[in-house]
Fold each of these.
Amino acid sequence: DPISIKDYYSFLAFFNDITPHSNNPLVDIGTPAQKQEHQIKVDHKKLAEEKLQDQIFKLEEELKATLLEPTNQTPDHSDTDLVDLTYRFYRDTWDQLPDDFDQLREETEGQIVSNRFTLRPASRNKSIGLVFEGKLRVPADDDYTFHINSIGGSRLWINGQKVTELVKAKGGYHQGTVALMAGYQPIRLEYFNQNADFPSLQVYWSLSGERGQRRHLSDATTILSNSRSTGQPWSYTFEPPTEDWIKLNFDDSEWETGIGGFGTHGTPGAVVRTVWSTPQIWLRKTFELDHIPTRVGLNLHHDEDVQVFINGTRVTNRRGYLTSYRTVDLKKSALKIGQNVIAVNCIQTGGGQYIDVGIVANPVVTDIDELLKQHTDQIEASPDLQVQVEQHQKLKKERDDSRKKKIPYSYMALAVQDVGTSQVHILERGNPRLQGDPVEPSFPTVLRHSASHLKLPLEEDQSKTKRRVVAEWIANPENPMTARVMVNRIWQHHFSRGIVRSSNDFGKFGTQATHSKLLDWLAHEFVSNQWRIKSLHKKIMMSNTYQMSAQVNEEALVVDPLNDLFWRFDIRRLTAEEIRDSVLSVSGNLNEKLGGPSVFPELPEEVLATSSQPTRVWGKSPLEEANRRSVYVKVKRSLLVPILNQFDMANTDSTCAVRFMTMVPTQSLTMLNGKFINQQAVAFAERIRQQGGSDLTDQIQFGLRLVLSRQPSIEEIAWATEFVETLAKKEQVDKKVALDRFALLALNLNEFIFLD
């Protein structure tokens, strides 16, 4: 019914101040059991990927050992103080560092070619343990101090003597001093991390009393932390600075100060603490050094192009972007003892953006793929190496393929939330700049009698549940409209038209109910049965009205030609989706799998040619998936599946209250000549041959029984058999082809696509 402008804006007020739920339109609506089941699957998948990574790392170390062997033949030629270093990796959860790792079962073990303590053998970050064993090269008899800085607990043993330990899960810095004799001494380091997102392990040693230079035993020691685990302060600007901004003595006091990393939320792998959304950013940070390490690397994550300067010297210039942090070995570091400055410029052109930089000492950067390329000739000459390389590639592919696959979880729903209580005004002539009188949330006058149980206007504590008030009004048993509309829809499903023909309009502009008392009674029964749709289906289908014959009564036809009084059952053609699904069912190809994403049945080239990108506009599903029920077929307004389009599928541009049934020649042509129908006819004929017996009459009877959903008559079997025999004898058609033609004919029978 027409409603007043005030009623319109009053009802609109219920839906004001709505935004996507928590910045995500999808929310989890699964039950605890469903969530637990999904999490178990996710955990199993993750564990399988971790075990693959365990194998990959071990195999990579073996390949490195073989390919790098000529350049590192004896321990004296190593640039580290550790030799023959091995590892054992454990996957478990502990509250503190275990007392005896030797009593526990390791997940995997192997060698560390770089001969440095490293967390790289761990295939995950949390709930891990590592035990390293090897030999320490001691240059002279003396007292030595060992320093350990770790996120996670650690314990150091040398020559069977415990030097230092920190067993708590948080970790931290600890040190110990021990007297050692010159030569190779057994060394053992134990480490664990409970639940830190970004574990770390740094180990170095020196003569006691800080005599001599520090010698690093781990693969990387932090000089300047990045902001992945703990945000680091930087000076920054979005405005182009002067040319000397990269130098130590530049005055950046007028720059802003912010916590790294800098970027936009949602950028892959980014930990954004200060938002940066402009085309460029310039960063500076000073730091102190008491010694210069042998090798230096940048721990870097950038999106997109980045330049990094140390003390005025450009040390790297990288284009493109990363999706995670990566260590980049520097050919030159430009570091000096005392105060240093790092300056960074990052440029963004599109998509996500992010920049964060740290500096590490003595990084171990050995790219396995680059190493394999460099030693191609050596690998081709060795069958054993070829087997190892092939196994490495196979494991990496299996891991990467698994990572790309998502565990399906269908218990998600589109959702929005109320975020405010702003005042709603009537907009004069619909112009948002011409605000009229204020209005409060309320229901249209014509429907207000059904909302008498609700307290309006809303109280202050209801302001954030406005839509809930509407939902409770709609689903309230005292609201007669909801039940009557639902009952009418279900009646329409069974009889092709509702008791109220205008399903979308129960007002004065719609048609009146042909049986208003029947509609009211069914609505009352529906609500009394706790809104159970199944009970309503049963009540309708068990009625005399539903079981009426479709035969015409001449006298009744004169009195009620439109069958408004339901004196007979109106013959109904199956809907487009029902026809397609019935064809697939009869042919034996219907995939009854439930849920999941949309599927893409094959489309003719002529249909695809109507698109500007014929090869990219439509997906390609495996045949088994493409044969799922039509409710799962992808609906694209500009590309429609021919058999669905021909048989009056719902309009894709607007809501469809009632399906209109047409009878046009192209429908018959589609059922005779369409590729889909002919393919399914061949499959149907093959099913007849396999399941219908060896005798032609038995095969015909079996096929007709499937199509007609009843036992065929003797006459029907006779004419169908005669049809096949005539094709075979008079038309000289192969028996197989003749049965294929019968299958196509059977799918075109009126009784197959009409319900009477």
Note: The radius of gyration is 38 Å.
Amino acid sequence: MVATLILVCMPAAVEVTVAPDQPIPFVYCDDPLILEFSSDKDVQITGTLKFSPAQSGDQAESTITPFHVYANSSYWYVVEKPPQNRGYYKLEINLACNGEAYKKETSFCRIDRPASLQHAPLYAHCGGDSRTSILTAAKSVGIETIHLMASSEYLNALTDEASLLGLHLILGMSPEQLQQRPDYLAQVIEARCENIVRFEINCSGIEQECATLIDAFRQNECPAGMALTVPDAKYFSQLMTQSPNLSPKHVSLTADPWPDKSEVYRIRYVAAQYGIEGLQVHVANPLWYPRPGQTASTFLQHFFEYRSAGASHVGLNASVFADDMGVQEMLAFLNGLALHFSGQTYVGDCVATAQVRAPLFRNGANWLAVVWSKKKGDSATLQVSGATNLELYDAFGNLLELDTSTENNVKIDCGPVPVYLKGTGGALLGDAAANELKAQVRYFMAQAELVQNLQPPLVDLVQKAASESGSSSGRLRFLELMSAFPGLEEQWHTRQVPKHIIGPAIMLISEMAKTMAILEEDRGELFMDPLRDTLSQTEESQSLYLTGSAGTAKSRERGDWILSEVRRLVEEAELLEQAERKIEAGAIAALAEARGLCLKSAAQADVPQETPEILPQPEVPPAVTEGEVQEGEPVQEGESTLLEEKAEEKPKEKAEPQPASRITPAVKEKQPEEKTESVENEPEEGVHVVVSGDNPYNIAKKYKIKLDDLLRWNNLTKKTTIHIGQKLIVQGEPAE
């Protein structure tokens, strides 16, 4: 896919190739720009070159020193003083060939050598493309993983080339391929299993047998990871209900157009309702291509939005950065991304206006603020007091001038194309964490099911977490939340509270705790227990679990995941200590200790083979939306209120004012009318009519009877599905 131009200069035909030493037209920043000229006849060539960078109006010209090309041979011409900045360039070539004039346009990118780049959390969808040069283009900008459809007729050639380049593979499979496992696919999988990081499985139409088919495939074909491909959270919830034995570790949220980032939150929440914490959500739009008038930088906005919502990897159409016409502007944007982003952890949004987004990511004390605006010519002011090593880069990775004339603030010019502000420490990290903690608390409080079913002291503690963070009582609130983890885990496994309540609660509180740990560092008060003592206690919990856990792999799933999370937190605490963030390290160690104490309950848990029908199908949490704020105020996402709406639905109850929710309600589906039966249809005494959202546990709790009695009176088991409109006896003789 080298950009070759055939310039018909009478009476000769001259070919011009940009960057002939590369498979596609890109030039490394430390390399000269070379043009290759070839001709079928002897020809004298001179002319000019005009360079136009894509993101600015600054053009540059270079005069071609006359040279001679002999017939049926080539000549490599080194361009004098070409543009040195990274980026995407349009090149206008004006030639005089033996006195005949000719003009042609092409394009190329200036990028960094792969050794200078980090491995960005991206993967490229290659679709049915047969060009192996796309794989080279992906590799050149730090993309280490490519997605191929198992049905591609070029599967063998592409997997062979990917293996030679050291690329990892994702194979997308249809329901029919999962069921039939065709011979050609089995041969590819056998040859490339070690290169496959995961399969992406479409279970549409085979939902009920999907778990069985996946297990059989992994045992017989390849033990690589399995991701469920879903278009939205609603389908994921339905899939988990219809195939109760599914225990996915990955979900691929694949849709066109790009899904809202709220879908990532919703999928993670649904997974937690089924007891799956730590689910990796990947987001992809294999069909996306910039519309006319739309810049490729739109993808960068999507990427950082998804990362801020907790997405692991983002997939894009490979044709966006390299196609039949040569390289595209996206290649230069991906180069800039790989220079500065390698999977840093999202902290929160910085100070911003309604038009501006400024999510902040960090690795230890080093942070990256990504700033963009919906409109051109905008600006944002960020508080950076105490920060060091401040640097500003454009989206291609070029260093920009940063105004640091004021001690505590920097003003950044921004527009739809993001810019990257990098620094170490300072107030910005804590400000972003404080904004995120408020958003996390609003999200928790908006989940009516959690608020209504968890112990009121815990709900009150969560509500206070944001308002008291950074104060002297912030440490106390943090430690109280840590002490809640073992009790929540025990309530789950002893079935005092259903897992569809406890699972999301543990996940959300854990995320709050990590945010509060950053704020503890800002407070500057050391923990009383030395870090090493806390980590030692954590090791004791791990050891007791490893020596005492038994049972099937299924029964150990929860405990094994907690064990891996504890180890990850211990490693994070040690890295923070090395980064001189000793207080935050102590807080993360305390979280590791608290999660480690949960191993006792997880190890002793009896995991029955129950279908989730005895629980209500989890309701997908309402969508996260961005709210408008005044300039200079912290970003507050979605100031509309689920709790306020519920207060309006019950006017007879005097509701206390509640904090604004992080989220706004999704469009409500029409609910069955059984909830509002007329007086004439009122059920007889001692009988309950099942309505939407009912389950045996909640019914027993409502009538203050034992669950076992309710099941016995109605000839039910814990695996029985109850239906809307069904009548259940709720009075009778209790069991002795």
Note: Residues 609-682 have pLDDT under 50 and may be disordered.
Amino acid sequence: MEITNLDQLFNPQSIAVIGASTKEKTVGNDIAKNLATGGFTGKVFLVNPNADELFGLKVYHDISEINENIDLLIICIPAQFVPQVIAQTAKNNVKAVAVISAGFKEAGNYELETELVRVCKQNNIALIGPNCLGVINPQIKLNASFAALMPAAGNVAFISQSGALCTSVIDYARNMKIGFSKFISIGNKADVDELGLIEYLSSDPDTKVILIYAESLNNSQRLIELCKKVTKGTNPKPIIILKSGKTQAGASAIASHTGSLSSGDSAYQALFSQAGIIRANSISELFNYAQIFSKNTLKKMDNVAIVTNAGGPGVVTTDEVVENGMNLAKISEETEAKLKQNLPPAANTHNPIDLLGDAKADRYEIALQNLVLDQNVDGIIVVLTPQSMSEIEATAQAIIKVKQTTDKPITVCFMGKESVASGVNLLQQNNVATTEFPEAAAKSLATLGKFVNQSQISNNEYFYFDDINKEKVRQIFDTARQNGQNSFPESQALEIFQAYNFPLLKSKQAHNADEVQNIADEFNCNMAMKIVSPDILHKSDVGGVILNINKDNIRQKFAEIMTTVSQHKPEAKLEGVLLMEMAPENGVEVILGANKDPMLGSMIMFGLGGIYVEVFKDVVFGIAPITRQDAQKMLQSIKSKKIFDGVRGKAEMDKEKIIECLGRLSCLLADFPEITELDINPLMVLPKGEGVRVLDGRIVIK
């Protein structure tokens, strides 16, 4: 599938509809009607063996009767006939096909969908669907779908897995005066998916913002790389995704710490963060973001001014501005003097600027005219509550007038419904972003600012180390498979970590009391003793860890641990103990982990570690492989991040070595995708300059 094929999908010169029905209120009839009567100026060929004319157009009885090139094929016939019909169009040089028909993978017919894809690839045809609504390009009045309404033309592209949601979005967007550059329902996305469309839209001059409704996403690494390119550079385009299925009730439990902490949505959260994708948590938020980006210039958004006619909403908006990471702009003395000169004495000319309840349009206009000229103000939130003397439409016109003179982002909240509807309608018609409540206004403006900041950060390369022994790990895994082993307890896991040059403590495994004594004499230091068993996951839970042992009591402690564990876990196979030098006591315990997401691949986990990791659940996730930038973001994203800076007289921790270990874990996972679970818990982080130490770990492969 070539990008040029997608261009002919959205800008076809000729279209054929297979299954153009004469029966009203059917898919085939609605699509034919939209194409014949909606203003599309290209050629339209309708195919139906039982009709001669429809909507004033000739109807062909069979596709073989059409002897011209067809750019776009629309199919709405029973699923079992679709591959055969597409194969018959080879002579027509078809570039793209939208299969509206259902009855493929979603109905359990996997082989039929596979055949459909095969036929399309064989003929170099871009396939949209099957089981989709169709394709719309308002720029050329193309409505190749069964949506009843044609969206207005604009700069927002919308991609959706759900066809039913598409029709609601069109209706809602028309009401909010949001226009679309492209509108695509991808259904089963058997061929063309979000990736192909994002790549196409990234260079589409009509598209400024990309909205996506997704139920699932694949090929995470390609998606991350592509979105990082699209959302950065000289012409960054925001990609905003509404992802359904946040909760996964009934998901199978996973034994590792990482698995139990990674809810079904954790992988997607990590994916969006790394890719620079903006996540909308609701349909209303999706449209708030669509407005703020499509109707404003991309500008930094550190300092915000608030203009209101009511103190209460002003305070609410102030709280939201600060909580969303922005600052109240410090109004310049010059601006404040002009405001005092032109506003009533009782008006508050400090930020938030309170124009008082009797404010009419002139006060809003004066305030905004001065604020857009103030270099200390990056963006403005305008709030109006309807009072008896409020001039709703005139105030809207005043806002529109000022916005046309500036490139500073402005968003407006006229609080109310019926009494402010005419003003809101005016604002939306004139390309001004609106929200129903001030909280949404602040969050939307902050989201725009965060996107601008992120778009200016250069992309890093993935981690690479030249001091790892990949071959040694490969041999360990190969030998394990030959022996039917897929789980690696601590002693074996440490050998794997050592091959990737993770910093380890001195350790050795002992199988009996004599070996224990010999190792203790060799180490000649305080040690930790840990049970070794393929059947025991969390050693502390069964008394399988004893600390601060020395060579004088080593035999006694060995007998104790073997007895205790046998009592707690009598069915477990005990393979001895691991003796490890005691870790320094001046560190912070963190956890590094990995888990395999079936759709998105290897997830990396980082957070506060130790035995309370599942209590505090202060962890974040990334998708392997990661960059240094990604690792730094993970470190800064946990709630307890200030611990590593040094608090209450404690030393600053060695954050650089945490980042390095995240990088080494990323390389291990990239090199060995068969790793399904991994825990390094704890990783002891020592003061700056002293490094880190792996204290415990386990690995599971498929």
Note: Confidence is low (pLDDT under 50) at residues 249-260.
Amino acid sequence: MSALTFDKSELGNLEYSLQREMLATDRIGGYMSTTIVCCNTRRYHGLMVAPIDDSGRTYVLLSSLDETVIQHDQTFNLALHRFPGVYEPRGHKYITDFEYTPTPTITYRVGGVILRKEMLWIHKRTQLMIRYTLVDAHSETRLRLRPFLAFRDKHALTHANMEADGHSYPAVNGVKCRLYGSFPWLYLQTSKPGTEFVPAPDWYYNFEYLQDLARGYEGHEDLMTTGYFETELKKGESIIFSASLDEMGSTKTIEEVFAASIARRTHKIDFLSCLEHSARQFVIRRPGGRTEVIAGYPWHGVSGRQSFVALPGITLLQEHKEDCIDVLDTEVRNMRDGMFAATASAAVAADAPLWFFWTLQRLGGTIGDEAVWNRYGGAMKEVLEAYRRGIAGRVALHGNGLVWASSDEIPLTWMNSMIGGRPVTPRNGYQVEVNALWYNAVRYTLELARSQGDKAFVKAWEALPERIENAFRELFALPEGYLADYVDETGPDKSIRPNMILACSLPYKPVDDRMRIDVIRTVRQHLLTPKGLRTLSPRNPLYRGSQEGTPEERDFASKNGSVWPWLLSFYVRACFDIDGDSFLPQAEEILANFEEDIQSYGIGSIGELYDADPPYAARGAISQAWSVGAVLEIYHMVLTRRPAPEKTKGSATRKTAAKAGKTTEKAAKTPGKPAKDTAAKAATAGKSAAKTAEKSGKKAAEPAAGKARKATAPSGGTKKKTMK
């Protein structure tokens, strides 16, 4: 796997550096995020973005920190900000190096001065520390640090106002600030005794956030500075700047906390170590014993569905079963009337509680089925009973055994984008993935109940799986050779979407091998790309290949074309289930397609989604839990099937791939052959999945070859103040 490296010669190229964003979290809900040259391009960027109470809301407290080197009465501002039409100051021209491990580090060179800046978020407390080291200098050198404060919700923007308190108040070797009385104090301190703080409160106007503007949102705000720190530095000397919601008792404490924290940092030097580190950032510990999963940084909160889907990849595969259990326990404690709360409730997400069972199946592989039943058996039975009774007038179990989910107010599946108060992809009825998950949940619960002697539950539910399976095949199987996306009163929706892949990849599948082969072939032909699965076939007239444009255009594209990595792990698993080890070369190539991503968008992580057309540009949140979990899942599927090194020498791999290609071609030409003879041979093409996906991508611009059934479609000039 490739190492995490950056082109030093390109760091001064803003087209290169502003597209690369870094993230560090404190594991309790706060984070630091900005570009690798510390120029904020989103309202969500900031050096300290953190919760201040139990509301779940997060606030940008410290937006940025400007560094200025002073020599011979000349000032050299190392910062970089965007104002309308101009970058000022242009400190990126002094950057000579950027390193991400063990902590984000930038090296500046100004003439004979070399200054190193190490940014460190402290785990399990809301504290940012930045250590500046004067690596080299030949004359008297002073360092000035000017903090810029926002004190606002991360989704909002702030503007100059008379209510903000620009005063600074004394603290140990620093000051404390609080722009508004409803916020806690922010302590700004340094590790060097005698560092001077010069009060100079002022508003700076019209900071411009290019990513917000590009996404169709307002992108200008004003920031407050209450003054600046200044001190002399000698060659080889360091000073640590600390911003915290708790006061550090002494300069020595600041140094000790920094030293202890950086010593514990893992080295993120390759693909796997980066993703494992990224995975740990999603699991957060809240007050009151709550453990939750942040769906994505920097703007997403907690999503029940995404938590369940992501958990195995971001916890169990790293042997962090305690994190997985704590998240599940938090969800179970919040259950009411047999149903999870908030975004994990079927009242707003018809499939979310059913993913709970899938997560438990994965957990069972770690702690054993008996432990799963003892801890969660009661919750499992309560959830199934809730579906049987019906939920919020939106979700009902019908006599045929299938789950019907319908609402005119909110979309109930993961395809939940809204435009003008209406769903982008209305899917009321029997949804293919909801009922695949329902079948899996019922079968799994029955399996555990039988093994643990719960005869009453078995007797009450044992007849249901056969009814579900029969109804599923009758309603969803299409003569065209794939599964309907949903079925409503008018019949099946024949739009080719990726949701059907779940019916082929869950532990319990309501379809036979023949149908699984056909679904995989259809997905590969229409939806597979190097970055994930498209949400709609390019042949559909509703298809959109780009995520650019207004919020409405992006919302429409997100579920009508855009590529989602989280689905890819289910495709890979389905192919392995059918094709066995002969799919290994394709899986390895799919995995390799993400190596570049960890250093070109969200550093060390995988983003939320991608454009559906080449070159498949990364879009959305820079670090998404179920995307990271999916790639880690694929990595471990590959790892467990990879042969011993001595067996991969020579042409063994090539022969396996060639054999897979021949058997697939043969299966395609003999559709009437029994599934048991072709199941192990027909899931993948001899050509690599990535190359096939590339061909599929190029077809995106081609005219539709045949119409699929249509889903219902929903009919800065303020004053500027440059930096001082």
Note: The CA atoms of residues 146 and 228 lie 4 Å apart.
